[in-house]
Amino acid sequence: MPDIRRAVPCPSTASLRKDHELPEVTARAGWRYHHLGIPTQIPHPAEKYLADFRMFVSGFETSPYGIEWMRFEENSPLPELVRTVPHVAFLVDNLESALEGKSLLSGISAPSEGVRIAMIADNGAPVELMEFRKTQE
Questions:
Q1: Mean pLDDT, 10 residues at a time, over the chain (137 residues)?
Q2: What is the structure's pLDDT at 73?
Q3: Among 7, 18, 32, 35, who pairs with 66 as Cys (CB 3.0-4.6 Å)?
Q4: Which CATH number fits the domain that encloses residue 118?
Q5: What is the C-alpha to C-alpha distance for residues 74 and 83, in angstroms, rounded to an integer?
Q6: CA-CA distances (angstroms) from residue 80 to 26, 45, 84, 105?
Q7: What pLDDT is stored for residue 15 in this prediction?
């Protein structure tokens, strides 16, 4: 498996993002911020256990900024990068389209009904892409 933390070639100065500009994925691709996942080893109040991932999550429901704490069991099947480095998550309209040309850290999964996710890496950091399917209410 290639080392995704390797140095990324510097783009030409003509294509560098300016301080006041939004990231390309939000400005042009229409991705929408969802949460920031932060790995921790400290238990937090109101943790919810996700058996498939052997992890606990907390904080998302109450954080006005979408901060989610993630505590992993030793045998979690998630990639080390996801278990050790904070990740940003974006909502996308079509997961397969958003993943075109990107390398997956792990396969597409469905952590809950109507939700599909995939993890990619950018510049040595994990990025979660999420698709919510509309359900009947």
A1: 51 78 93 98 96 95 97 97 98 97 92 93 96 76
A2: 98
A3: 35
A4: 3.10.180.10
A5: 10
A6: 27, 24, 6, 10
A7: 78
What pTM, to 2 d.p., does this model score?
Answer: 0.85
Per the domain annotation, does 41 fall within a domain?
yes
In a domain, 35, yes or no: yes
User: HSE of 73 in the Cβ direction (CA atoms, 13 Å)?
Assistant: 11
Instruction: Determine the structural domain holding residue 88 and report its residue range.
Output: 31-132
Predicted confidence at residue 66, as pLDDT, reads 97
The per-residue pLDDT for 100 is: 95
Closest to 33 (Cα-Cα) out of 108, 129, 101: 129
Long-range contacts of 23-29 (CB under 8 A, 24+ apart): 25/90, 26/90, 29/92, 29/98
113 inside domain: yes
Q: Does some domain include residue 5? A: no
- Backbone angles phi and psi of 53, in degrees to 5: -100, -5
CA quadruple 5, 11, 15, 18: dihedral, nearest 10: 50
Looking at the 3D structure of the chain, how many domains does it have?
1
